[in-house]
Amino acid sequence: xxxxxxxxxxxxxxxxxxxxxxxxxxxxxxxxxxxxxxxxxxxxxxxxxxxxxxxxxxxxxxxxxxxxxxxxxxxxxxxxxxxxxxxxxxxxxxxxxxxxxxxxxxxxxxxxxxxxxxxxxxxxxxxxxxxxxxxxxxxxxxxxxxxxxxxxxxxxxxxxxxxxxxxxxxxxxxxxxxxxxxxxxxxxxxxxxxxxxxxxxxxxxxxxxxxxxxxxxxxxxxxxxxxxxxxxxxxxxxxxxxxxxxxxxxxxxxxxxxxxxxxxxxxxxxxxxxxxxxxxxxxxxxxxxxxxxxxxxxxxxxxxxxxxxxxxxxxxxxxxxxxxxxxxxxxxxxxxxxxxxxxxxxxxxxxxxxxxxxxxxxxxxxxxxxxxxxxxxxxxxxxxxxxxxxxxxxxxxxxxxxxxxxxxxxxxxxxxxxxxxxxxxxxxxxxxxxxxxxxxxxxxxxxxxxxxxxxxxxxxxxxxxxxxxxxxxxxxxxxxxxxxxxxxxxxxxxxxxxxxxxxxxxxxxxxxxxxxxxxxxxxxxxxxxxxxxxxxxxxxxxxxxxxxxxxxxxxxxxxxxxxxxxxxxxxxxxxxxxxxxxxxxxxxxxxxxxxxxxxxxxxxxxxxxxxxxxxxxxxxxxxxxxxxxxxxxxxxxxxxxxxxxxxxxxxxxxxxxxxxxxxxxxxxxxxxxxxxxxxxxxxxxxxxxxxxxxxxxxxxxxxxxxxxxxxxxxxxxxxxxxxxxxxxxxxxxxxxxxxxxxxxxxxxxxxxxxxxxxxxxxxxxxxxxxxxxxxxxxxxxxxxxxxxxxxxxxxxxxxxxxxxxxxxxxxxxxxxxxxxxxxxxxxxxxxxxxxxxxxxxxxxxxxxxxxxxxxxxxxxxxxxxxxxxxxxxxxxxxxxxxxxxxxxxxxxxxxxxxxxxxxxxxxxxxxxxxxxxxxxxxxxxxxxxxxxxxxxxxxxxxxxxxxxxxxxxxxxxxxxxxx
Length: 963
Description:
- By secondary structure, the chain is an alpha+beta fold.
- A six-stranded mixed beta sheet has the order 10-14-15-13-12-11.
- The two termini are 62 Å apart.
């Protein structure tokens, strides 16, 4: 068999089957959807046809059985129920099983699916019989007759006036004869056998009538030409026809019809264009390419280090150009490794459906942020942990319907999956509204397993106690099931997530539900890292985990020793400190006080790593450690620096476990400050600095780095001061000058706040920094000055809060407008198309695609709202009449969100009345198009693509959607 052809078949079949599973689940909730049945039928038909071409007999037989059943459902418009969907899902599973075996061995596995094929055939015949009799959907018991045994078949309770369910698929006279003879159960008929049944009173006559068509068919076949002779005749006809075709034409061929010719010409370019836009590339090729780019990054770092002290401006310019191109190449290649999380969430609806039926529960699934993208390597590592967590939520989290009703809840439970990007991380939440986890039961279990003493368990906060479920063997499940609760798994879940640099935490409220919070990096290939020194050895710390850097010495008043562990009191909170030299046994004599502390936050755990010195930040390529070090959890890999030196990359998760950081914190009852006051935990981080007698605060969210800047580093460019920073030239603003104070000529050294947004940076110079604190920023007094938001009290000191966005506008008043326009120019413009009618979506989608839009779709306003909560398109095109949330409600919600003030919103409607127009105008929407006016739609959208805001269209166009 051609390997390339087989590979293409496997790839296409698996892609199609992934979609068919979701279609079947949707069909269960919407059984009267002929388009969906057609789509499912086409997929199975395609698989079956390809199998026949490739000579895959077993696979063809299984697919053919499913195709026959679907064909019968489709042709008879038979209403689909849950039992038919379950049978079809089994068919899909069997096809997948055969495809997996084919992929592994290169040939079909010897699996027997004959029983499934028989059940599919029985269901097909029953549907045919029931449709002829006009009866209800197929009863599941009827499809099990082939395989049933007397022990497995439950007795049916019937009264003399009732007809058993299995008899509804049989002609009424036959059913009556069986019932009169005392055959009330299907198994009784099977056990009696055909000979007994046909000898029942009146049965022979009825069977003779039924067999008459077969007798006629047999007589007709006996008169027919034998098949061998027929084949010979057909073969002769083919040869005659072929010889006629290859002869030169005697007369002029008829001219093709113009309409047909123009259709071919119009369609061909579109198909070629689609094929040219996407190609399949082997993943190993992308991985090799990524490795080469990694080497290029290392060479770039080495080059930049070599030219640091050069006086050649030409060489500097060339090195900066190489650096910028390398960065862009790296970013673009990373995008090729990214896949939406929906690739692993796709199996969840089926999983929850099967678990619900198995446990007798009712569970609703909600998925938000399915388009969120991660590195494919991380996605592969997350599949099993996520599956385990979701199964636990269904099994132990969501209660049985009767228990939920007794607790005053809706009998249908809910499991929510949510994913979004946040500061270089992907945040995944798995939430259930079940019974929650009792922390006291966990404490008791931990004491029983000798993990903690009774005193230690009692000292644990509820939040800390919940984290013990990640300990190997600890489970609060009352019974062991095939789904979950075996006392293993959650420790493996945490281990697998931590292997890809992630963290997992759990929160729960008894009676309300539980939530698992997973935080993982976007990619592991190339990362920014902080390079530190301990005992003359260099180490790399992933910068995404670094919260702040502290310069300390032995005389600092913040040092404390508690229960044999070292802590540093930072802004009123005790921070566990781990000396890197002590943790890695780098020093043989007495441990020394560190010169700096790197503050790390891993999930809910916050601690400090004591080092001798912090060298700075560098972008590094992550490479695996050698075989002899792979069992050590404290190392996450290694890398090569710009000077050619090799550095190990510290795994902060592993270090925290290795040094028992969380145990030390919990032992003294300080984890989360024993549920510290909310004002200490909520709010945002702000940087405090002073100028004269006044204190100022600026949000840390926009501050990329803090740099020590000497006045000699500042250069003049025209009327503006600039700074050469990381291969860029960025503008400089002096805070003293901005607030109108006199410049201090004696001051030569400043702290530069590198503020960044929308891919651009500026440097704000201040004389010094007071602190970095977390504060809810409750504004006590608003400000009229453009640079300030208002005044708050922080640690008892009146502090003016700076509006960082106004600072950026000091450099460029059009900073954000230009950034948005630049982003739009660098990619296809994105349109959110909200329409509930599949037909109209299919009608408009090619138009939008032809205009160059990247199209997002939503079936109703509620789905659109969920999308808008996660991402922002460049334009919204919506219908008005939709289920759940209509177009008016969606437009009202959009206009209530300040971040969407400039977002163009166009509505389409077939409604042509004054009330509709008035409602839209009341919402501030003047863009309404007639639903079926393609020309106006194209003209309007083409106009909006080149504008920054909505412009009212001509009154002639608005007026009832007509010209």
